[in-house]
Amino acid sequence: MIYPQAAPLVMTRKTHDALKASIRHWKRLASGKRRKGEWMLSDDCALCGLFIEDHCGARFKAAARVELKFLESLLPKRKRKVKKP
User: How many CB atoms lie within 10 A of CB 65?
Assistant: First the structure.
């Protein structure tokens, strides 16, 4: 199947610089050589900082509550004694 090509997008210098910075950020994270205090958060990602207005705050908290509820649901319903070796 042949798909029509979209018109090329124009990238601003600001977006280009943020993209390059984000690539460097994720390379550091992927290599295990992150900077002190650098995390996988939108505050540390230049593209996120540029395009995500609330830095994922409200959406992140809502997703975290859903994840927490799911993880807690994996716990056994009643306490069991753990056998000592």
Answer: 10
